[in-house]
Structures are given as structure tokens and as C-alpha cells.
Amino acid sequence: MSVLVNKNSKVIVQGFTGTEGTFHATQMIEYGTNVVGGVTPGKGGTTHLDKPVFNTVADAVKKASADTSIIFVPPAFAADAIKEAAEAGIKVIVCITEGIPIQDMVEAKEYIKDKNCTLIGPNCPGVITPGEAKVGIMPGFVFKKGRVGIISKSGTLTYEAADQIVKAGLGVSTAIGIGGDPVIGTSTRQAVELLMNDPETDSIVMIGEIGGGMEAEAARWIKANGNKKPVVGFIAGQTAPAGRRMGHAGAIVGGNDDTAAAKMKILAECGVMVVESPAQIGATMAKAMLVAV
Amino acid sequence: MNLHEYQGKEILKKNGVLTQEGIAVSTLDDAIKAAISLQQSTGTTCWVVKAQIHAGGRGKGGGVKVATSMDKLKEKVTDILGMTLITPQTGPAGKKVSTILIAQDVYGGEAEQRKEFYMSILLDREKKQNVIIYSTEGGMEIEEVADKHPEKIQKEWIDPKGMLQAFQARKIAFNLGLSGDAFKNMVKFVGNLYKAYVTSDATMLEINPVLKTHDNRIIAVDAKVNIDDNAIYRHTEYPEMRDIAEEDPTEVEASKYNLNFIKLDGNVGCMVNGAGLAMATMDMIKLAGGSPANFLDVGGSANAQTVEAGFRIILSDPSVKAILINIFGGIVRCDRVAQGVVDAYKNIGEINIPIIVRLQGTNAELGKELIDKSGLKVFSAILLSEAAELVSKIVKS
């Protein structure tokens, strides 16, 4: 089982022959991800990293039975790449690209709404199911197989959480980097739902940050659905000043409800174990699992 | 990117939105010429002098004044140009006014013939749709209206499949209580305003007030426009519209090295890879008893050069008493970052404050070894909790 990606995923890389695409495709293949090829318009028919290159995603689906795609194309063309993947029938689309204009994403999200696919990102580190498939840019060795699911808006903070989980004697079922942009494909709540329904996940680490209301929405869903699995939550940006964009395009405090303090309060009220310090994620989860056993 | 009022109004005009006419100037001579020119083109006999800074509440701070004669104009211009304007949004240090807008008077006729409204367009993050927010209560801060009369704030969401529909523009005009020519003009105004929002890649466009004049024209008297930084590349005119004087000088310096830096007023500097981890590190500093002096994301390419630039920028702030470097190596190799720290340390020379380096991830042990053997006064850590303890110890000593 696990969620989104596993050893059977047939992965293609959009933006395959570019610098980023080449580097990370190499890493993914080394990790053991089943990369079946890539797409670079105009280079169809050639091979790259010993894998076939296709002109279109539709070709890759037809000829290589691709069902998962990871996107590394530049921001100006990334929204189009998402739409192309959805139209071609790709089931899981992971968009790594950072810097896509917001209006492009509003349009792309609407476009793929009825296409029976899941978009992760953009501006995210991707998805990893340890030991099976890495569809992202994360350092694979940090993620050891286990039964804790991780959801995060941030890349390095995801690695941090995974590292602490592993050092606490636990492991990761699937880690989902949902991305730090204001408009993303899969919300915190949707990612939580996936992991709550996954029989291979026993507990969840949910990492959020200032801006927007996704963490609160997820927490309310967790409570409404009976707090079935322990959830440890952390919200980055308790010390962030209002009105400033903190690196991520979506990380900006716009009102009273999207501050770290407000979100932490809602999480705690909904039965999420909220940690104040990012250094406490692993230890808190270990304690929660002892109690659960 | 934030725009000045006069820049925002240029975007509005380009899209057919009727605006209060004005000319941006930065000297008294040009202000006089602008006033005469406006008199000739619009027939206005009095003028509004408006400070152009990137903060709201300008009127409250004395940055917007009406001049009823040419002598008064000279007086007001001299008052405002060069002043340090303090508003609720500038902070106590205020902002120096180097550009002013000389604008026509649009408040002719009897007061009861006029009406002020509020209108803004932005992205509703929950619904992933653009939304037009409007109110019959214009001219005052929308936060105040939201507080006292939440029922007077109305919203119209735009289906991402298409543009604003004509019936929606009519609904807004009706809800604002308009009829006749004013109604027709408001429908046109809303349509063009939405077009301006979309074509300019704005993330927020706020017009407060929108004025119904005594002769039923609908005019944007002010314009606050924020542009999506991710979309600047497709608008050739935007880079030159950036006003560096409005930004923190250290932040401008940092951007030259592709460092994402935000100045804060604490005592512990930090340098981190990744925005989320950077925010988390700031929070950890606070919990350890310190206070973060900055946000600094060195991104995925932390090397000797960026580390040195980061050091210099953080050290330029005299209130910084310690620096915490927190790197989780993924693509970034920790030994390279460590080498960068050692090199930067030597290049800068004497650094008199404690430095804590926490390296984790790819080649973390190698990196720690490099730091430990360098003979520098650098505390190294591998676990985040260890780094937190070090910060706590140093802050308390």
C-alpha cells in the first residue's frame, strides 16, 4: 500500500534533459525509483540516462505506460506542463518548480479539477515512500522505512522531521511535501486524509507554517473523523512579523487567523499534539507511539 | 513587489479605469509645473499633494494635504517633500518622502451628491478564486469597517473558468445602491478594474476610496497595488518600477547574492537553508531565550561565497550577539558548507561573537570534523536540540 507513490509507480520526468531534471532523475534512479523515461519537447526518440525521451506526455503514457510525473520545467512553462500531464492521463503529478505566477496556478488547478489526477506542489520537495520510490528532490538516505506519515509545506523541515523520527527509533511510511505556494494541488487536509486511510501509516507528523487556513482545516477534519491516529503538529513562523513574505510565497501573515499562535491553538483544540520547538518533533512522536501501544 | 499610488494608477488607466489625474514629481519647481498643467487639462482649481511611500495611513501622518491656491500648494509641497512620514504602517522610524503626487481635486459639487465606496480584488486562498471585496463604507480603513459593520462588507467570487461576468458587475453596482449613469459607470469601472488586476498579475489591488462624483462619474481616488513577484518576468516595465529606497538596504544587498533576507530586531542572527526551516530556527531561538535578528534563507546553493555574504550582512547589525547556522544538507553537502564557514571566517578576520554551526544530512560528520579541526571559536552541533541548548547557554552568559 503506502500512498501516492510506490515500487510499481511508472515515473516520467518532465524537463528530463535540463540540468535540474538530469541531476534529480539520476538521483531518483539510483534510489531505485522506477523511472520509465522523460519528456523534453523536440528531443523525442532520443535516450537520456539510458531512458527514452518523449516529445509529449501523451507519448510517454502510450509507449511507456507512465502513471506518475515529476516536473522540473522553468516557472514560465510549468503550469502548462501540469495541464499536459493531467490531460495525458497521468494519475500523480509532482511539481517541483518554484516561482510559478499565482494566476497561472489558479487556472491550472481549475483545468485539472475533473481530470482524475492528484497534483502535489508546486514549489515542493516531492513525495517519498522509503524503500520503494522517491519522486522528489529529498536526500533519500534520511528517510528510513517505518509507519509514520509526514506532511509538510517545507523541504528542509521535512528532512528535519524525518531525521528526528528515524533517530527516535521510528520510520517513515510516506512523506508528502505539499509545497509552500498560496495555490497548491493537494491541501494539508487532503494529504492527512490519504495518510489516515493508509493501513501502513500508524501516526502522522503535520508541519505547517504561517499564512492561509489549511492547517486549521486539516485539524478540524481530524477531530471530526474521530482522531483515529496520533498527529504531532508544528507550525513554523511563531516569530515572523506580520505582512512580510517569509521566503515561501504563501508564508505571509495577512490577518489574525493565520498566525502561528492562532493555528497552534486550533490544532491543540482538535487533539493534535502541538510542539513549540521544531527540535521536539521526534521525541513527541516517540512518546505518543508508546502511549498508543 | 509593492507599487506607489502613481504607478498603480498608471496600470489602472491603461485598462480603462477612470482615475483621479495626477503627476508625480520630486521637486518644488516640477510640482508647480504639474499643478499648472493639471489646471489646464482638468480645469481643477485646487490640488491634492500626496506623499508617495509604500505604506498606508498617509493621511493620518500628514502626508496628504489639499491646497486651495498656488501659494498654499507651494507651502504644502515644501511641508511634505523630504519629510519623514510616520504612519501606523511605517513603524516609529517612518519613511522619507522623496516623491509626491500632485493630483486634481475630484470632490466638486455638494457633499450629498458624492459618495465614497471601497473596492479591492485579491486571491481567496481557501477557494482558490479571485474575489472582489466591496463596501458602501469607503474612505475609512477596511479593517475598521470589518470590525464595526461586518455586514457592510460584500464579496463576489470570480469563477476561474472565465473572467468577471457582466451580471456580477451589475450585482455589485446594485448592491452599492447606484442607479442611472452612476450605475452604468460603476459596471464599467468594476469590469476594467478586474481586467487591470488580471493583466497586471497583481496579488492585490485596493481602491479606497472609489468616488461617485457629483456628476455621476466613478473614479479611483487612490490605488494600492501589490504585484506577484513570480510574474515580474513577463512584464518588462516592472523592474524599473521597483523603488529600492522603500526597501531595507541590507535586504537589497542580500538580494544581490540571491539570499532571501528579512531584517528583524532581535539579538541572534541565523543563516539557514530552506524557508520553512529558517522560520523554525527563528522560533527555536526565541524558545531558547534569544530573539531572532533576521530571517535568512540561503537556498539550495549554500557555498563559501553565499555563506560569506550572509555573514557580512548579519554582522552589519550591531545588536547581533551570536549567530546560528542551521543547514540540513540534502543536495547541499555539509562539508562544503563547513568549508565555506571556515573560509568566510578567515576572510572576514576578527569575528567577536560566538558562532554556532549545526550541520545535518549529507556529509554532516565530515562537516563537523572540518569545523572542529579548524581551530576557530565555533561551536558545532548535529542535533537541532543540541543547537538549541547552545543558543540558550550563549544567550544567558
In short:
The complex is a heterodimer of chains A (293) and B (397). Chain A has 293 residues and is of the alpha/beta class.
Architecture overview:
The complex is a heterodimer of chains A (293) and B (397). Chain A is α/β, with parallel strands linked by helices and 293 residues long. Helices cover 34% and strands 22% of the residues of chain A. Chain A has 9 helices and 14 strands. Chain A has a 7-stranded mixed β-sheet with strand order 3-4-2-1-5-6-7, with helices on both faces. In chain A, strands 9-8-11-10-12-13-14 form a 7-stranded mixed β-sheet, sandwiched between helices. Chain A is globular. The two termini of chain A are 22 Å apart. In chain B, 36% of the residues lie in helices and 24% in strands. In chain B, strands 7, 8, 9, 10, 11 and 12 form a 6-stranded antiparallel β-sheet that branches. Chain B is elongated. At the A-B interface, helix 4 and helix 5 of A face helix 8 and helix 12 of B.
Compute the number of strand runs of chain A.
14
**Oligomeric assembly:** heterodimer
Looking across the biggest beta sheet of chain A, what order are the strands in?
Answer: 3-4-2-1-5-6-7
Structural class of chain A: alpha/beta
Strand content of chain A: 15-25%
Series of secondary-structure elements of chain B, N-terminal to C-terminal = HEHEEHEEEEEHEHHEEEHEEHEHEHEHEH
Q: What is the number of helices of chain B?
A: 12
What summary fits the major beta sheet of chain A?
A: 7 strands, mixed
Intertermini distance of chain A:
22 Å
The percent of residues in helical segments of chain A reads: 25-40%
Question: What's the average pLDDT of chain A?
Answer: 94
Shape, per Cα inertia axes of chain B? elongated
Shape of chain A: globular
Radius of gyration of chain A: 18 Å
